[in-house]
Amino acid sequence: MDSRSHTPVTAALRLCLHALLTGLLALVAVRAVGEGAPHAGAVVALTLVTAGVYGAGALAGRPGPAGAGVRAGAGARAGAEARATSVRQRASMRPGTRAAALWLAALCALWLGLLVLSPDALWVAFPLYFLQLHLLPTRWGVPAVVVTAAAAITSFVVHRQEIAPGAFIGPLLGAAVAIATVLGYDALFRESERRRELIVELVATRAELAEAERTAGTLAERERLAREIHDTLAQGLSSIQLLLRAAERTLPGHAPATAHVRAAREAAQANLAEARSFVRALTPPDLEHGSLAAALERLCARTTGPDLTVRFAVSGTPVELPTPYEVALLRTAQSALANTVRHARAGRAEITLSFMDTSVALDVVDDGRGFDPSGAPVAERGDGGFGLPAMRSRAATLGGTLSVESAPGQGTALAVTLPVAAPAEERAA
Questions:
Q1: Which residues contact 416 (CB under 8 A, 6 or more apart)?
Q2: Cα gap 399→397, rounded to integer Å
Q3: Does the pLDDT at position 90 exceed 50?
Q4: 0.85 exceeded by the pTM?
């Protein structure tokens, strides 16, 4: 396995496993030669073959460190790909390919051959425990460890011709430690992966929240600038144009100042048109591609769902409204419908935009559970709704009023009325 795929800890565990297996195989060969065992040559040859098979597998990337440490390295190696994989999939990742299974089977077969020739080979069972738990699924790895421990115990009894407590305790205790270590490490790895997933999700959520806040701030600033331009520059230029028009009418046609007054009036008119284009460019997106009525109709269509039907109607003859009026009425309708969806549990709601001689009104009515207007409405408790105080403040800024009629179990009716003055040209006439 590529050492670059491991953290320093898992790489160290992998090297320790290599060293442990190599040292135990060397111990088997040395003891066979030193004690003059009957099959010393066969033991040495089989030990070398086992070491060669293990080394070939290690270089090919099949074996790994004790237990789930390799899986931790695989999770670290995955990088961006791991973020798209579920924790459960990563926890179950094992290099249990067919080649790895054949490699492990060859190691176990060679080890069994060593067991037959030398009783010292039973110690090689300990690194085999970790390899089996790593390369095999848990449902197969644990039984394989138990069988390996039983083979080691049987070898000891056959070679020593005696039954000793240590012969049972040693292999069984080693198997228990290996199983506990691997499963515990695996559990820690899964927990670490879950925490990493939560951190990734948290970072993504924070980025989305920051983007939403930037968007909301941008829209709010656009509304503020549109309102300021309309209420100051546009109104001032309109007044200048009307005054210059009146002055032009009072001057004789041949007066020297008439041409200058006319030029000043035309300049004021051009700048007024430019200011109004700025106001239109700064209006909310819902108002950029149509009238207020069209924006309200789209709002009702978006809000309508399986549990709530929202209808829109226009009363009277529509007239062009100042941009701050359109923004105020649209935002009030959006907030009122949001509160209806979130709190009212209504089945039907209706928005009516009424144009009258001296005012424009927006009515939002629903058949929901209602509330006590004299108390603290749900929308005012700071849980994310626009809030009646903010609606009243927006209406009052434009010289209008907001009224609410509601009672528990009887629905809610909200009405915003804004004054509409006669066009300045008509007043001047």
A1: 328, 329, 332, 361, 362, 391, 395, 400, 401, 402
A2: 6
A3: no
A4: no
